[in-house]
Design a protein that fits this description.
With 595 residues, this protein is an alpha+beta fold. It has 20 helices and 14 strands. The strands form four sheets. Strands 4-3-8-7-6-5 form a six-stranded antiparallel β-sheet, covered by helices on one side. Strands 9-11-14 form a three-stranded antiparallel β-sheet. A three-stranded antiparallel β-sheet has the order 10-13-12. The N terminus is likely disordered.
């Protein structure tokens, strides 16, 4: 629970009974008109001065009232606090506990809820406590066996899913069709450059790696070779007869996700989606929340108008989602700069929520995330579990979203934060995880914070200054190819359970429904988020100064981390971030020239 992780702003009242278990607690909204965003991190109007679980007290916006730790009359032991954090939504008022109305009972209430604005007060989002940030540096290299098997498993599901997403064809013939499996390319370095093993040899090497072996011997073309992958970024092949050693690397096979879109049937579906129009305005959705919170704020209004234009442009091929964040912005920006240097990511358009591909090896898609939620996370902090948040982000399906858990326009203008918490160490761990040499991490972090202050990016949580406008909010507009929506997204109730009434989410979003009230969880897989033909993102910042200078900020940030572009480090860093392999489109030259 993101609220429980703000340790400096908690109030514990032992005299109150323990919160009910997740099974005993009233279920959150399950219909499209009753879902919000950010994992339930906002209060309703009925909760404006509601007392939260175990006596936690919230004002009408989002800050907890701090009480000195000395006044707590129970020991602050790990088990007690772990239990508090694992608990779900606060049992705040009778109104909050009431069963949600059915869809038919919501008829005609859309306008009034948007007009009141009382139920959309924003609390910190789950992503903003940075509990998902990396804990290990590059010394703990990812398991290449996991990377190989994860890619193979993922490729088995992509082909069928991408073929049926637009047509809705779930016939036994389509489901039984043999999926294409990616074949990794294994390359060996000769004096004149990198050369591929043939497909059979590559498969033999990858088969060994998939078993978990990191050292093995194989016979190729009449010669015996010893292969060592104990450190994937330093893999070697040794000819057992001559002793000649050569470097190796593994390149992922081509993805089929984008290729399967190029057919007449899909073109027809794109035309149909274009005719339905921008997602945020479908179903005659009210836009009053935007006017309510943005009128008089010319900058915010201009940002939302640009997002509206983007929706008009991309609504045929892409579904759109809106992800709000605040002080996580610096980490997102660092991710984007590193991805620009190593992976051709177009950081001038957007930040990047996650970058460590190897953290997605065990949870590469929405189906797996749902499965893990049900077996592991549901009883352990739900979508606030760090394991969930390493891969998942919360989002809304409409720019005009009104709640019930958050209102996109209100969150953007007001921002939100957790005071008196320093994440300087988080920034340093992120830099180290991105293969910045350890001896340079501290000084580089200092320079990045200073650069952020120069451009008015709020870094108060990192030991720097707050932005002068006191508007630290940011909004990310995420377009995902419709063929990939079910791969990366699921419809969610507050705190992460699946909202079955809106599944599969691709069918829901391909309709002409009103999306003002509905949240999702997105697997923010960098493998896809770094490819503009699969995912496209745009960002807006509530602080006008940073918004205007963000492109310059990114250029200067990239210059600060230019050492990652050095030939001696570039490939090792890219392979380490990617999980021991490299993307199929990756090349050895400086990637900044491709942006």
């Amino acid at each position: 629970d993101a609220r429980a992780q703000v340790q400096t702003m908690q109030l514990f009242a032992p005299s109150r009974p323990a919160p009910p278990s997740a099974d005993a607690r009233p279920r959150p909204p399950v219909n499209p008109s009753e879902s919000g965003a950010h994992g339930g991190e906002a209060s309703t109007g009925a909760r404006r001065w509601g007392r939260g679980r175990a006596g936690m007290l919230w004002c009408g916006r989002h800050f907890r009232i701090a009480v000195p730790e000395a006044k707590l009359d129970v020991p602050r032991d790990d088990d007690t606090w772990a239990g508090l954090r694992a608990a779900g939504p606060a049992e705040e008022t009778e109104a909050a506990d009431a069963a949600p109305p059915r869809p038919e009972e919501r008829e005609g209430t859309e306008e009034s809820s948007a007009a009141s604005g009382e139920e959309e007060a924003a609390r910190p989002t789950p992503t903003d406590d940075l509990g998902w940030a990396p804990e290990d540096g590059p010394d703990s290299e990812p398991c290449i066996a996991t990377a190989i098997e994860a890619s193979r498993s993922l490729s088995r599901t992509l082909t069928v899913r991408s073929r049926r997403n637009f047509s809705g064809d779930s016939s036994p013939e389509v489901l039984a069709e043999e999926p294409r499996e990616v074949c990794h390319r294994v390359q060996v370095h000769f004096d004149n450059g990198w050369h591929d093993f043939n497909e059979e040899e590559s498969r033999s090497i990858c088969d060994e790696l998939a078993t978990g072996a990191t050292e093995f011997t194989l016979q190729f073309r009449g010669h015996a070779y010893f292969f060592s992958f104990t450190k994937p970024s330093e893999a070697m092949q040794t000819n057992l007869k001559t002793g000649k050693r050569r470097k190796l690397r593994i390149i992922e096979g081509e993805d089929t996700a984008a290729a399967d879109l190029a057919n007449d049937e899909v073109a027809e579906q794109i035309a149909a989606q274009t005719a339905l129009g921008p997602q945020s305005k479908r179903g005659c959705a009210s836009q009053s929340a935007i006017g309510k919170y943005l009128d008089g704020n010319a900058h915010a209004r201009a940002c939302f108008e640009q997002f509206e234009q983007n929706e008009v442009k991309y609504c045929g091929e892409w579904a759109v989602f809106y992800h709000s964040y605040s002080f996580a912005a610096l980490i997102y920006e660092v991710h984007a700069a590193v991805a620009s240097v190593l992976f051709r990511f177009r950081s001038q358009y957007s930040a990047l929520p996650r970058i460590l591909v190897h953290e997605f090896l065990e949870i590469p898609d929405a189906d797996t995330l749902i499965q893990r939620f049900n077996t592991d996370f549901a009883e352990h902090k739900r979508d606030h579990n760090p394991g969930f948040r390493k891969v998942g982000i919360s989002a809304m399906c409409s720019l005009a979203s009104t709640g019930p858990e958050a209102c996109v326009s209100r969150v953007f203008v007001s921002g939100y934060s957790c005071k008196d918490v320093s994440f300087r160490s988080v920034l340093e761990k992120v830099l180290e995880a991105c293969y910045v040499p350890k001896e340079n991490v501290y000084s580089l972090a200092t320079k990045i914070i200073k650069l952020s202050e120069k451009h008015s990016l709020d870094v108060s949580q990192f030991g720097g200054k707050a932005c002068q406008s006191s508007k630290p909010g940011h909004l990310m507009q995420i377009f995902i190819k419709r063929s990939l929506v079910d791969q990366l997204v699921y419809a969610a109730e507050p705190y992460g359970p699946v909202d079955q009434e809106r599944m599969p989410v691709s069918e829901y979003l391909n309709s002409d429904r009103n999306f003002n009230r509905g949240q999702v969880r997105i697997v923010a897989h960098p493998k896809y988020f770094m490819q503009a033909n699969l995912v496209r993102m745009f960002v807006a910042s509530a602080d006008p100064t940073f918004h205007r200078s963000r492109t310059t900020f990114q250029s200067e940030l990239i210059e600060l981390i230019k050492e990652l572009a050095e030939p001696s480090l570039r490939e090792r860093a890219a392979a380490g971030i990617y999980g021991g392999t490299l993307p199929s489109w990756w090349t050895a030259e400086d990637q900044r020239g491709h942006v």
